[in-house]
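User: Before I run my own analysis I want an independent prediction to cross-check against. Here's the chain; please return only the structure tokens and, at the end, one sentence I can use as a sanity check.
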Amino acid sequence: MDPMLEGASWLDEELAGSTFADARLGQRLRRLLEQLGGAMGASVPLACQDWAATKAAYRFFDNDRVSEAEILAGHFAATASRLAATEGPILILHDTTEFTYHRVRPEPVGVIGQYPCRNTSYDRRQLYTVCGLLMHSSLGVTPDGLPLGLCAIKFWTRATFKGTTELKRHINPTRVPIEDKESLRWLENMRQSSALVADPARCIHIGDRESDIYELFVTAHELGTHFLVRSSVDRRADEGTQTIIAAMDQQPGQGEHWIAVRDDKGKESQAHLTIKYHRLQVLPPLAKRKRYPALALTVICADEQETPENRQPIHWRLITDLPVTCVDEAIEKIGWYALRWKIELFHKILKSGCRAEDAKLRSAERLVNLLALFCILAWRVFWLTMLNRTAPQASPRLVLTALEIRLLDQLVKNKTSSPSPTLAHYLTKIARLGGHLARAKDPPPGNMVMWRGLSRLTDIELGASLGMRLVGN
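Assistant: Structure tokens:
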């Protein structure tokens, strides 16, 4: 096999399910992923290296026949294959993030909010407009924390912005249909994510307090899937005689649990939690009681008894449709919710590694297409980082080609003799290319050194391939 094609074999799997009507657009997408993946964090001109390739990239982002749906179709298909190859529950992590851009005119991109001016030379009552895009993503992970891929994604922006407080002065939000709210994105991503799995009952959709939406509970029931969200609304329970908080306050502590947490200074400590759980009949909001039925849901409370230094105490109130019959099952659900932080790390890779907010494209449509490409690259970096921790004994051929393995053997010398090098052995070598010291007591490499190492390996692989062709000629 041609070394250049062999080195990009992971792209074959991720783009096999692409749905472009014109095959040339699929070829351009592949080429852009190679270029941007080899120069992660660099600008489009630097990644493309010349004006012809840069202009082709700009034409791709501005093409009316290209959208985030076509760009991510192959990745969604590959994610479905990985989900089908795993056993047990699948955790679908949902979250929303913002991408801010500095533009003279916000209209071509849109706005995400208005905030008070910080410049003391201006009237403090003035507001300045923040230009940018919003993205709601859904990431499928295993209970061990291995990201299997994106299951759904939604981009949008706003022509104008009115804060929630301003809206509440004119209308009761509970009386607005969910179809007229931005919160509809939670339901749409749940439907799209569940459709990727043959058995939606395997999916547990996990969200923060923003996802405490009664319509989401009903949608999960209709789809035959499950949810686990952090509650923020003190809903009516039983026959309406009490609320969730009042009902849980009456429950005694049923168990204890210790988890490792870090304070504001990064110091790790053990948090002592008291666990309570109870099955309740949760009622819909009064304005929607004729539209939605009551649901039998489980509420899990995890409260830290002591007041720690340098951080807020943990007080989680989780709500789920999954049954909980013992303390161990409640602790399991708490551990699943703790994995929600993984999607925050994915967003960090997009912003810090891919430098998505440094893009200079002028319109929202072009930026969305570029962000869709970055999502594929960010997932792969995150996948390799977590694969090093969850499956260290796997074969290196799972993610590396023969050429990459040979290059790593030549570039990074072994610190210890290993008769059969494992995947973790070679992923650590990639991290060492990115600056990881790999000392005996060092933790496993993180995303930053991994993406730096991958970028260096890509450049070295390109030089080796060209050298082989020159020698051959």
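Sanity check: Residues 231-325 form one domain.
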